[in-house]
Amino acid sequence: MTLISPPLELLPNTSPLIGDRRPTDSSAGMHKHRYAATGQVTSQVPMAGKPEMDAAVAAARAAQPSWAAMPVTERRRLLMRLADLIEADADRLTNLGTIDNGTPQQIVQSAPSLTAELFRYNAGWTDRIEGSVIPTWPGDALDYAVEKPFGVVAIIIPWNGPLIACGMTGAPALAAGNTVVIKPPELAPYSALRIGELALEAGIPPGVLNVVPAGPVGGDALVRNPGVDKIHFTGSGATARIVLSAALETLTPVGLELGGKSANIVFEDTDISTALPTMMSGIIALSGQGCINGTRLLVQDRIYDEVVEAAGRFITQVPIGDPYDGSTAIGPVVNDTACQRILGMITRATEDGARVISGGERLNGDYADGYFVAPTILADVPSDSYIAQNEVFGPVLSILRFSDETEAVKIANDTEFGLAAYIQTNDLKRAHRVADRLDVGNVWINGFNGIPVSAPFGGNKHSGHGRLGGKWGIREFTRPRNIWVSL
Ligand code: NAD
Q1: Ligand 1 atom index nearest CA of 291
Q2: What is the pLDDT of residue 416?
Q3: Which residue among 202, 331, 354, 465 is buried most deeply as judged by most CB within 10 Å?
Q4: Are both 67 and 206 inside the same structural domain?
């Protein structure tokens, strides 16, 4: 069996989009981007360094005053128009999503409509960003606070969901009157570049939305540029630390959306067959490469063996393989380095006492040239072991045992992360009680159906701070100015 080749004729221009220019220079070299399912080179992508980042920030700076001063009805119309174009371009964007990082078509096909929705929702905020009138004393004064955009926002996004990341961060930043430089990584440059092209097509003025693919060299140049008023970083804690120390020089504020090690707590009153899809979503969603995946399955004693057995059976039914096969739910991981890291973590887990229920190896045969790790279930994982404490970012589910509610909450909170958690129970009071005690930004009870664009999203502890989504996303990209008028 040969894997289906991706339609590379759909790739956008791979040069950075700076204003309305597509300079072909790449001071940080060219990146040979590979299709994760086959290892095939898809194109050579110019990597931006300091000169390109400086040009992008200058373009964003030049465009910002008039973007912020534009009548809000016009800014809203342009963002709505972009949403329409994203929807009209859904087939191409779905393909680019797969080419970017190997996400199966069946999974990534929902990304364009969600991204369009993020732009549409945030467009609706343009005339709703209100200020406050502040009481004054002893009087004879008017004091009011207005919400202002930061100016130029550098948006650094990860490779695992670049399209949605553009919507989550770019849409509120633009709606609030900022201009942006979006930096997608070398591993997934295409969807973000296409969003930049569609923004120009929508009539958004050049320089308002710049897209500049780069690796660490360009990322560092962007972060250190004094023309950047705010940095929004989505990625790993390790890179966040580098970004934060670079931002120390300019004292630029940094918003952080980082990793997770989310618990999925299964209480003994749960209907196992109903809850299984949610229990297994931690290993399936984005082939295990999602920040919010419930990768630690905490199961109560009495149903522990039954759940372990059911999980082992369930995973054999989940189609893994060619991202272009419409039935595929689990595809490759992003690259060879990821394969090595994931397999290394599985080996270490077994040395720490975990029992392999399924998987544990790289897929060979037809899949040998791609980056496929068999979906892996580990049982009896000690809570203090390396795999229970660190992000795997691959299709690996760790099952842990607990005896009562207090212990479940303790284990769930016992990592440095605090992004998300899941609860499976038929006891309504317990569901709310436990949700209240989890030190995380997002909790899903009895099912995972995504998150509304109007809800807050983000993490606690080492999972970041600040929130995207809803009014919280707008707040992330505005700051108040207080104005006192003596009367
Ligand atoms: P990463 O930290 O390796 O890279 C993130 C971004 O930082 C990329 O664009 C990368 O090119 C850039 N970068 C690298 N070095 C830089 C530097 N010196 N200066 C500036 N930028 C630099 O993360 P990744 O592997 O792309 O993504 C996976 C991580 O992202 C996981 O930890 C995952 O949980 C997290 N993530 C979090 C969320 C969320 O919303 N909380 C969403 C998706 C992914």
Answers
A1: 34
A2: 98
A3: 331
A4: yes
Residue 371: inside a domain: yes
Q: Using 50, 70 and 90 to split pLDDT, how confident is the model at 139?
A: confident
Name the token pair of 480: 């108040």
Whether 186 and 332 map to the same domain: the answer is no
C-beta of residue 381 within 8 angstroms of C-beta of residue 349: yes
**Are 28 and 132 members of one domain?**
yes
Averaged pLDDT, 406-421: 98
Q: Which domain holds residue 326?
A: 263-454
253 in any annotated domain: yes
Ligand 1: residue of 223, 233, 291 to mutate (most ligand atoms within 8 A of CB) is: 291
In the predicted model, what is the mean pLDDT of residues 126-151?
Answer: 95
pLDDT more than 90, % of the chain: 98
454-460: list long-range contacts, CB under 8 Å, 24+ apart.
Answer: 454/121, 457/168, 458/257, 458/419, 459/257, 459/258, 459/260, 459/417, 459/418, 459/419, 459/420, 460/418, 460/419
Task: Give residue ranges with CB within 6 A of ligand 1.
Answer: 156-161, 183, 185, 215-216, 219-220, 223, 234-236, 239, 242-243, 257-260, 291, 391, 393, 419, 459, 464
* Residue to mutate, 236, 242, 463, ligand 1, most ligand atoms under 8 Å from C-beta: 236
Q: Which numbered atom of ligand 1 lies nearest the CA of 238?
A: 2
Tell me the H-state helices in 202-250: 216-224, 237-250
| Residue 407 bears catalytic tag | no
Is 412 inside any structural domain?
Answer: yes
Q: Are residues 445 and 300 in the same domain?
A: yes
**CATH number of the domain encompassing residue 420:** 3.40.309.10
pLDDT at 25: 82
Does residue 3 lie within any of the structural domains? no
Distance 157 CA to ligand 1 centre (A): 6
**How far, in Å, is the centroid of ligand 1 from the Cα of 288?**
16
CATH number at residue 245: 3.40.605.10
For a ligand 1 pocket test, name from 160, 186, 190, 211 the mutation site with the most ligand atoms within 8 angstroms of its C-beta: 160
pLDDT of residue 156: 98
- Which ligand 1 atom lies nearest to the CA of residue 419? 41
pLDDT averaged over the chain? 97
> Taking the complete model, does pTM exceed 0.85, yes or no?
yes
Query: Are 210 and 121 in a shared domain?
Result: yes
Q: Is the pLDDT of residue 1 over 80?
A: no
- Among residues 398, 376, 408, the alpha carbon closest in space to that of 302 is found at 408
DSSP 3-state percent helix, strand, coil across the chain (nearest 5): 40, 20, 40
Q: What is the DSSP-derived secondary structure letter of residue 234?
A: E
Q: Are residues 273 and 129 in the same domain?
A: no
| Measured distance between the N- and C-terminal CA atoms of the chain, rounded to whole angstroms | 80
Whether residues 378 and 345 fall in one domain: yes
Which ligand 1 atom is the nearest neighbour of the CA of 260?
34
What is the domain count for the chain? 2
Nearest CA to ligand 1 atom 40: 257
